[in-house]
Amino acid sequence: MTEPPHILVVDDDRRIRELLKSYLLENDYRISTAASAAEARKQMEGIAFDLIVLDVMMPGESGLNFVSSIRSEKLDVPILMLSALSETTDRIAGLSSGSDDYLAKPFEPKELLLRLQSLLRRAGPKSTKRKKITFGDCEFDLAMGEFLRGGVAVKLTSREKDILRILAQKPGEAFSRLQLAVMGAEENERSVDVQINRLRQKIEFDSANPKYLQTMRGAGYALFIDQL
Question: Any bridge partners for residue 222, and if so which?
């Protein structure tokens, strides 16, 4: 079975982030959050999100500038903009920047959900071509999240899959704990070490002396693989 869509919520208002996170989790989506465009960029380095929900007015880089930047990089991820600005000119500005839809605050959660479903349908499924990585006797399918060791399926949690996907984007390159804390919260950043240790138990022959999932002193963690 394919995993549910992974949505990135970007809003400087913590209350809004938590409300959206809670509501969308209840509706079976995977959710990551970011408080700024800069934080969102860090998360996008390692994860190909299925959709972005983005606030227009944020300190630092605005939502409009962030969308323009994303589109200039030829990224086609669907984007739904949220804003307290509800005039027609504001909506036009949002859509002109490259967003796919625009929803004024306050909004009905059900309407938000329907708009997200519509954008995801329009985007269609991601490429079914599977990208697999191998290291030792392990094989990981990035698209499906399937992990095999010695040809036997090993169950990974959603967090373990997310971390492994991030590390697999750039094998041999260190990712910091903040980059691996895909939910964008401090408590998740602190839990990265725990997740890494659990992954090592499933990956390494000797988890105390890891060969593939290594600690890079002062930099974070890196995954060393055999081939793409």
Answer: 214
**DSSP at 74:** T
Is the model's pLDDT at 24 over the cut of 80?
yes
- What are the domain boundaries of the chain? 6-123, 132-223
How far is the C-alpha of 203 from the C-alpha of 188, rounded, in Å? 21
Instruction: Report d(CA 172, CA 124) in Å as an integer.
Output: 32
Distance CA 157, CA 148 (A): 14
Which numeric CATH code is attached to 132-223? 1.10.10.10
- Give the span between the Cα atoms of 34 and 151, in whole angstroms: 37
pLDDT digits (tens, 9 = 90+) for 162-194: 888 888 878 888 888 877 875 444 556 678 888
The CATH number of the domain covering residues in 6-123? 3.40.50.2300
* Residue count (the chain): 228
